[in-house]
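Holo model, uridine-diphosphate-N-acetylglucosamine. Inputs:
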Amino acid sequence: MKIASIVGARPNFVKLGPIHKSLKGSGNDHLIFHTGQHYDYEMSDIFFTEFTLPKPDVHLGVGSGSSCFQIGEIVKRLESKLVEKQIDLVLVYGDTNSTLAGAICANKCNIKLGHIEAGLRSYDVSMPEENNRILTDHLSDYLYAPTINAMKNLKKEGIRGKIYHTGDLSVEIISKTSSICKKSKILDILNLKSKSYFLLTMHRAENTNSKYLFVQLLETFEALKDSIIVFPIHPRTKKMFESFGLLNRLLECSNVKTLLPVGYIDFIALLQNSLKIVTDSGGIQKEAYLLKVPCITMRKNTEWIETLKGQWNVLTGVDSKKIVKAIKGTSSSSKYSKSAFGNGKTSHIISKLLSNLAMN
Ligand code: UD1
Ligand code: UDP
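Output:
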């Protein structure tokens, strides 16, 4: 069977790593189609190097733009490539615009579609990711749900495709990376000691479109002037600091170490050695949980509800007072479910399910 993975954004590449390896190992013909949604070296190519992924078989080169532009261009450019390469099944990952565009195109080309990380719901339809997930799930023939809650969400919605509980890819990715990342030099480069700093990321549209929330973030930094905060800045966020005229105020926060986005190995090294992580990312909430690093999520809701148990993850929104309180507070660590995200064999399970399809 000829399988094409459609990827385009940072979290897609992270999930692609173990799937590509498992599919290759199982003798499936696996092609990588890069939409070009992310294109900076540190948002794209670095992950191909770190996960020893081959150069994409197809690069659509779509780049940045509005959601309509991105989704429209990907669908338009992908169609002929799927047909030309005689693809039998398309795999999409997570909830990005590249995910939804890949799903629409597979559906319109009458090609079977599998969705990795299906069934997650934040129940907040103001987030583009929530709509991307729902639409992709409803277009999918095979839905690979990472958690029991995701399975339940899909069943509630009367999904037409076949649903499988596979566990989450992050378990195997983290377990491999957390040993590799001992080789990371990032702490030395930044002159940091383990467990002496907080790590922070922010890039979601609902947070970065608001000047008020950027001021809240700066007030957080200013209120924590005795704490070191490491802040790898997503290009969207950097652009918005500039356009709100707040970049200088950020640079004046001498307790904040700003850096370009880092590769996966350095990021996991930074996360593992941090006191706490403050983020609005989806994937990082789960990675923090797996590494037992307390997480403060600058959102009002989360699709990874398992992480909320035992206060491993607390929701604060981008509210300076709430973030500072959560940073200074103690974290409960009693309730922890080692198996909430599966047993670390997700890529193998998915690849076996795909091989079984090929035989039928
Ligand atoms: C996308 C996903 C989001 C995911 C995030 C991961 C959607 C709707 N959103 O958001 O769910 O959490 O990726 O990082 O798909 N830019 C660059 N260089 C790049 C990529 C982006 O400068 O390599 C800048 C551009 O100004 C662009 C902006 O970042 O307009 C936003 O990029 P985009 O891909 O639209 O969305 P993300 O915010 O990255
Ligand atoms: N990540 C990374 N470098 C960074 C920030 C994040 O490698 O500077 C990784 C992170 O560990 C996670 C993935 O990128 O696996 C998540 O991406 P992001 O937060 O951009 O997207 P989301 O998960 O919110 O969709």
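Residues 9-11, 37-40, 43, 64, 67, 95-97, 128-129, 203, 234-236, 239 surround uridine-diphosphate-N-acetylglucosamine (ligand 1) (CB under 6 Å). The radius of gyration is 20 Å.
Archived with the compound record.
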